[in-house]
Write a structure and sequence with these properties.
The chain is an all-alpha fold. The protein is about 75% helix and about 0% strand.
């Protein structure tokens, strides 16, 4: 079971990130209330900012589930979550996102795991260099 624990964590975190992305895509005006004040002075509207954030989360959440560029994806998602924690502050949402941040740091620390595209391509590369399948 321990062999699959990181896979379960990676898929679970990826699913949560994708869920939030889909919520933002379906109702972006609801999510603008969570944006920090500085976003009002950006060259793009807050709704556009939400859409961009949603597409970032949808893309990186999918990559997390697939285990493709696991370290890079978990690094950027961890920084993203940390930014949310600092902008939201110490409340239920901030604490939840801090938990997601810690889980993403754990994934980053471990790197690619069982049943990931990273592992698949690494095995394929090693078999090509050694001539075995």
């Amino acid at each position: 079971m321990q062999k699959f624990s990181l896979l379960i964590l990676r898929v679970g975190i990826g699913a949560v990130i994708i869920w939030f992305a889909l919520q933002q895509l379906s109702n972006p005006s609801f999510w603008t209330t969570y944006l920090p004040e500085f976003t009002k002075s950006l060259q793009i509207s807050q709704t556009t900012f939400i859409y961009l954030n949603a597409w970032f989360e949808l893309t990186f959440g999918t990559l997390m589930i697939l285990g493709f560029y696991t370290r890079i994806v978990s690094f950027f998602l961890a920084i993203h979550m940390l930014g949310i924690v600092f902008s939201i502050g110490y409340d239920a949402t901030g604490i939840r996102d801090f938990g997601l941040f810690i889980a993403l740091v754990s994934i980053y620390s471990y790197g690619p795991s069982t049943w990931s595209l990273d592992e698949f391509f690494e095995k394929k590369k090693n078999s090509a260099t050694t001539g075995t399948i």
